[in-house]
Amino acid sequence: MSNYIRVGRRISRREFLGVAAAGAGVAFLGGCGGGGGQGGGGGESYRLTLIVGVTGDEFYTTMECGAQAAARELGADLTVQGPEEFSAAEQTPILNAAIQANPDAILIAPTDRAAMVAPIQSAVNQDIAVVLVDTTIEKEEIALAQISSDNVEGGRQAGEALAKQIGEEGKVLVISVKPGISTTDQRQQGFEEAIEAYPNIEYLGTEYCNDDPTQAASITTSTLQSNPDLKGIFGANVFSGQGAGTGVRQTGKKDQVSVVAFDASPTQVEDLRRGNVDVLIAQHPNDIGNKGVRIAVGYLKSDKEPSSKQITTGFTTVTRENLDEPEVKEYLYKAEC
Amino acid sequence: MANTRTNAQQEEESKLGPRRVLPHLAGSAFIFLILAGLMIAFSILEGTAFLSRENFLNIAVDASELLLLAVGVTFVIITAGIDLSVGSVLVLSSVIAAQTMVALSGTDQQVQNFTYPNQAVGIPLGIAAGLLTGLVCGFINGLLVTKLKLTPFIATLGTLGVFLGTAQILSGGTNVPYVPPAIQTQVGTRQLLGFLPVPIAIGLVVVVVAILALHQTQFGRYTYAIGSNAEAARRVGIDVDRHLLKVYTLSGFLAGLAGIIDVARFNTASVGAHTLDNLAAISAAVIGGTSLFGGIGSIVGSVVGTFIPAVLRNGFVIHGVQPFWQEVAIGIVLILAVFIDQRRRGAEERM
Amino acid sequence: MDHTGKEVGVRGNEAVLQVRGINKSFGAVQALKNVDFEVRSGEVTALIGDNGAGKSTLINVITGVLAPDSGEIIFEGERVEFASPHDARERGIETVYQDLAVAPQLDAVANIFLGRERRMAGLLGRIGFLDQQRMQSETDEQLEELHVRIPDPTKPLSTFSGGQRQGVAVARAVMWASKVVIMDEPTAALGVAQVGMVLDLVRRVRQTGIPIVFISHNMPQVFDVADRIIVLRLGEVVAELDPKKASTDDAVAAMTGSLRGEERE
């Protein structure tokens, strides 16, 4: 009769080595890590975790640089994490894991006003101080503080800048990310308020590119198809602005169409130099990150809540002319610290 | 036909029922060891930050939707097919479920004031609508593959766009607002018996049913047979087209169920999310030992394959590893796991 | 003919399956021309012929894959029509295909019961649960009866040698064939030892009384195992040879229609 398989066959040497290698690899990577994960032994050295909205976005990278600078200055330990996709489904597991590491404070840019409330509440319940940076949540009050640009004001500045560029008349379009994100919605709002004051400016409305620069570019080119006399575009965030610039370049219309873009990523600055974009409204993410860390550490040291829970940071209007001036240059976004 | 069996031989044979499932499990044993190894390593490195009930429950809840996608995709891949549209089906189902709940739980005015007089009807109907959406999407995929004879890669690549686009049209590109919070409190964040989160319970039930279906029923047998040699299956009289239709419909249904869980967890339909879920689900199946060439795979393997990246990410974040290094590490684990598994398999086969 | 009107073959074996006057054309090409063919119980009937002689077409007619243009098929004394391969299988006619038609990732039991799985009793069975134990023991019986040795019934067929896979394919056909087994080039891809095993298998099947139709290009094997040799050429039956009396040369001559062969007739 045939032999039957012996169930639960023994592990071969190769397999054992494979498993050991996996374990060793993890331990090795521990050495490469951002230095978090130490037990809470070290006196004044507070442990902070910054969770950005999406990795690879220079706005958040610049925020990270500002936060790291403040952390170094104050002797705090800062780890940075973030999801690959700007969504609650991707950010929640990261926040949950970060909470497990039991840092003293978490700085987070929430990816969904409603969905992130529960996990953030969970952090607060475990005595972890939470600072909201850039975007916010519905139950804002559970956090220690909320720091962002005054996006309505920023939108207004963008509206004024664009009106000036196009001689206060003509058709304009707004390209935003998607409705429901507090920051970009406020910029749109500010922009609309500003251009309302100009009777000769025709507002074509807002299109959403879902944070995809390729989509923003195709929105630009197709709007130019249906409105060949388009004179101005406002891109409400990094990828929207980048995509608008690309679209304008592709259609060769950079002399006709003025583009005002929010944010000043390296690609956008390049677009500005080349003339595909005319004005950049740079936020100060560096300040947001910096202030966020200071407020967190200040609270941890003194155990007193900050005097103001709502902090706004400013803007810098960047043009081809002032691009290289030192006061402007420091506010251009960085791809790495 | 003389029966020359001895008592000893008869005894051995009677043990064979359960033994026939075990070879499948033995194949997944290696990948399970890797998962166990990772968990041990992180437990040693991080202590109770990693090794805690709360952390494990979080990992499981966070992975619950992907688990359903991975189970569905496993059936499809075993038939030597593929389903790239699962993320889009999830999103479309969540949009239709959420919008149905909002529409049927009260008038516009009531709902925008966060009152939901009819939610006892609205929520279940919304769930049914979401599940039905998944079913229909899967059925469409099946029709494209069996009736139009499109290769599954192309068919589901196409429907990936169609379903996602439909979701964006229906929702206006924005997350669905005013979803009755009861779906979140009663399903998304609820814990059965005081400790078992509903998403995990749903995942468990689906996994158990899938294991039985794949390994103990004719449906599962035909799934393997068609993946191994569809022509041979046809020749013995198996209706291959009809079976494939069922398999793709199943994958769609599970994606729809994942969409319901998504609405329950986040109290909205997130239209811009889940863009990378299809690859994550396929990776989970492949890490778990499912062969893209068909005929080989297991549910247990896919479960383990779902949790290996989830545990890695969790441990890395707790430890503080930079996000980009995390992706490199996860990619390396995927390659290593599949490589070692294929070497092991190849050693046994003869051409 | 005996008193019941059933055709009785030379050896006194009953004719299980007969085809009379079968014609089949594909467009302008006539693949089968007025073919009479018989399969008798307890006999191995070899069907030989050059490429294009019509062997596959004839087999396809017998197994219900193709419908003949004219002529009749008589099965166990009754006239029948096969609308599909399913009809032929239902009547107990099974085929071992040249490419084996097995699922390599499945094990022997799964392959043998493919499409005909045994289900559990009661409600469980109705929702599809398989009776694995029963299928396993039935497979063991069948394999033992045919002296088919396989290394491990729980391992996939891809781990078996060609001959072992052939053994499983034959066992499958024999298990389900209550009336006729057809084997298309069963030894084509096998080594010497494995060929012997398959031919032994053929003889053992014959012993059970089930007739076998054996298609092959290999003359020595054909003469070794067949009881009758039917030669097809250009769609017609040109000879019926008794392997005990005729020689390989006769067979080849009949296949190719050489002058020598025609003279001898």
Keywords for this structure?
heterotrimer, A: 337 residues, alpha/beta, Rossmann fold, 2 domains, six-stranded parallel beta sheet, six-stranded mixed beta sheet, 11 helices, 12 strands, 19% strand, disordered N terminus, B: 351 residues, mainly alpha, ABC transporter involved in vitamin B12 uptake, BtuC, 15 helices, 2 strands, globular
Can you walk me through this structure?
The complex is a heterotrimer of chains A (337), B (351) and C (265). Chain A has 337 residues and is of the alpha/beta class. Chain A has two domains: 47-148 and 285-312, Response regulator (Rossmann fold, 3-Layer(aba) Sandwich), CATH 3.40.50.2300; 151-283 and 319-329, Response regulator (Rossmann fold), CATH 3.40.50.2300. Chain A contains eleven helices and twelve strands. Chain A has helices at residues 13-32, 58-74, 88-100, 117-125, 151-165, 182-196, 213-226, 238-251, 266-274, 285-302, 326-329; strands spanning 47-51, 77-81, 105-108, 129-133, 145-149, 170-176, 201-208, 230-235, 258-262, 279-283, 310-313, 315-319. Chain B has a single domain, classed as ABC transporter involved in vitamin B12 uptake, BtuC (Orthogonal Bundle), CATH 1.10.3470. Chain B has a two-stranded antiparallel sheet. Chain C has one domain (15-264): Rossmann fold (3-Layer(aba) Sandwich), CATH 3.40.50. Chain C is 34% helix and 24% strand. In chain C, the strands form two sheets. Chain C has a six-stranded mixed sheet with strand order 6-7-8-3-9-10, with helices on both faces. Chain C has a four-stranded antiparallel sheet with strand order 2-1-4-5, covered by helices on one side. In chain C, α6 (162-176) packs parallel to α7 (192-207). The radius of gyration of chain C is 19 Å and the shape is globular. Chains A and B meet through α1, β2 and α3 of A and α3, α4, α12, α14 and α15 of B.
Task: Describe what is shown at a glance.
The complex is a heterotrimer of chains A (337), B (351) and C (265). Chain A is an alpha/beta fold and 337 residues long.
| Helix content range of chain C | 25-40%
> What amount of the residues of chain A lies in strands?
15-25%
**Over all CA atoms, what is the radius of gyration of chain C?**
19 Å
The percentage of residues in β strands of chain C lies in: 15-25%
What's the oligomerization state? heterotrimer
* Low-pLDDT ranges of chain C: 1-11, 259-265
List the secondary-structure elements of chain A in sequence, H or E.
HEHEHEHEEHEHEHEHEHEHEEH
* SSE pattern of chain C, N- to C-terminal: EEEHEEHEHHHHEHEHEEHH
CATH class of chain C: Alpha Beta
For the record, the CATH class of the largest domain in chain A is Alpha Beta
Number of strands of chain A: 12
Task: Describe the global form of chain A.
Answer: elongated
| N-C termini distance of chain A | 70 Å
Count of domain modules of chain C: 1
